[in-house]
Design a protein that fits this description.
Mean pLDDT: 95
Distance between the termini: 10 Å
Low-confidence stretches: none
Length: 384
């Protein structure tokens, strides 16, 4: 979809920055290690298929998503690279997933049996990466010899082709991470004893690949790095990692409000001086957190304007008293640009990944190449 650019509330994505981040992250990957571009959750709010198309054009040959529906969306968008589904395969979509040639996570023998049946129906093998719970306690086979027996049985099911073995680090501290990594190595050894050899093993995400380069193994799975979320404690490492996204809105109206008056739903936010209050065309329905009122700021004409009152579903208010030239129609920066990801996340009492991933599909995505608009995707403006 390439819709008209409606300047109300929108999200700008710089595809050149995205590609540069990809190249830099690949540069930090050891030779021979495959690089999985993690584009789950609508590519961390950036737009799933546009991001994948841009990265595939730069040579990306492996993507990772959370669910089969995301993976099938990539296939419909012309992504022919390998796609790893890191969540469970929905029973209703097993056959579609097999026919699409996806790499499917299996975390139990029962799941493997469902995929085996789907593979036999489809007349082609189910490509499987086995997930091991090495101590994160979220998803996977237990890291025990008994579970290795089950995985060996899984590998012999009709239509099942085990291609990978993986886990995920909790990233609590090095001691705990080392324990998890050792558990994955033990599982690979137990499987080898049972005659099961896997072609690829992986455990590192964006943080893991930077913190433990010696554990990169056959694949690294990087998402945050692509989108400009630099892992902590890497400030001294010589690589670029710039935000590719800016979240913007406009001023709808400005009111002169007397001291003592409340603003919006929040009757605790009484003004202490005569104020100019700007109503903005964005709210938590667009992905701007409701909790930001009285905490955050927005960028207006290059200056920071405090957010006042509770953020509404579709609108929010900012105090522009100290920005006298602010006017209806002005562009306002909510996130990105002069509002750093880290600062925004601190205001919202969350992390940077959530801050960008919760951006809704209501704001159009406006994609730039070489400083010019390349695409505008608007979920609410169908192509007629």
């Amino acid at each position: 979809m390439n819709a008209p650019f409606v300047r109300r509330t929108w999200i700008e994505i710089d595809l050149d920055t995205l590609v540069n981040n990809y190249k830099e992250a690949k540069r930090m990957t050891r030779p021979g290690v495959r690089f999985a571009c993690v584009v789950k959750s609508n590519a961390y709010g950036h737009g799933l298929y546009r991001v994948a198309q841009a990265l595939q054009a730069e040579g990306a040959d492996l993507f990772a998503v959370s669910c089969v529906r995301e993976a099938l969306c990539l296939r419909r968008a012309g992504i022919r690279a390998d796609v790893l589904v890191m969540g469970l395969c929905d029973a209703e979509l097993c056959r579609d997933a097999v026919e699409a040639g996806l790499l499917l996570t299996v975390a139990s023998l029962a799941e493997g049996e469902r995929l085996s049946a789907a593979a036999q129906e489809a007349g082609r093998p189910a490509r499987v990466h086995v997930k091991v719970d090495t101590g994160f306690h979220r998803l996977g086979f237990e890291a025990t010899p008994q579970a290795a027996d089950e995985i060996a049985r899984l590998s012999h099911l009709a239509g099942i082709r085990v291609e990978g073995l993986y886990s995920h680090l909790a990233l609590i501290d090095r001691e705990r991470d080392a324990y998890q990594h050792a558990n994955l190595l033990r599982m690979r050894a137990w499987l080898a004893e049972r005659g099961v050899e896997v072609a690829e093993m992986h455990i590192c995400d964006s943080i893991g690949m930077m913190r433990y380069p010696e554990w990169q193994h056959d694949i690294v799975r990087a998402g945050a790095l692509l989108f400009g979320v630099r892992p902590g404690h890497t400030e001294d490492m010589p690589f670029a990692c710039d935000p590719a996204l800016t979240f913007k809105t406009t001023i709808a109206q400005i009111h002169d409000v007397a001291p003592g008056e409340p603003v919006g739903y929040d009757d605790r936010a009484n003004l202490t001086r005569p104020s100019r209050i700007a109503t903005l065309c964005a709210g938590y329905g667009d992905g701007y957190p409701r909790c930001m009122g009285g905490v955050a700021g927005v960028g207006v004409r290059g200056r920071l304007a405090p957010v006042v009152g509770l953020v509404c579903m579709d609108q929010m208010m900012a105090d522009v008293t100290d920005i006298p030239d602010a006017a209806p129609g002005d562009e306002v920066t909510l996130l990105g640009g002069m509002i750093p990801f880290a600062q925004y996340a601190d205001w919202a009492n969350t992390n940077r990944n959530e801050a960008i991933s919760i951006l809704s599909k209501r704001p159009p995505r406006v994609y730039y190449r070489a400083g010019r608009i390349a695409f505008v995707d608007d979920e609410l403006t169908p192509t007629l």
